[in-house]
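Hello again, I could really use a second opinion on something today. I've dropped the whole record in just underneath, so have a look.
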Amino acid sequence: MGKIIFYEDRNFQGRSYECSSDSSDLNSFFNRCNSIRVENGNWMLYEQPNYSGHQYFLKRGEYPDFQQWYGFNDSIRSCRIIPQQRGSNRIKIYEREDFRGDSMEFTDDCPSVHERFNYHEIYSCNIYDGHWIFYEQPNYRGRQYYLRPGEYRRYNDWGAMNARIGSFRHVRESY
């Protein structure tokens, strides 16, 4: 069971809200979020309600201000716990939309998409097993996108504004 605590002010001060499940709209619980304590589980946080806007992956730990989770601002409006998975992880990425063009299958993390796949963009993908995080830049930096098992025919299916992906990793129980 996951547990995350949101605080309105930095350094775990001000009003707080404790959450242990997905929430598509946190607006009624707090006005801003400047610090977070993740007590259990891995979480994906979203800048906007209904799991949209900038996304932030947080694992167990303390984040005394929004810059600690690479936040663009103090807005967190929805959250999703990432289920723990044991077993295999498998993803297939494609250079074109609708699963066309060159493709490659992975079962583990990829710190540099360009070095392994020879492209800077991923336009579509299939997540066969596991939960994955795409990062806009190599070495797990930049904007983040959470992908659950399923088909993603276009990059906007995972919430991206463009197809540029520099790295990706599967979500483990803990890092």
Observations:
- The chain has a mean pLDDT of 95.
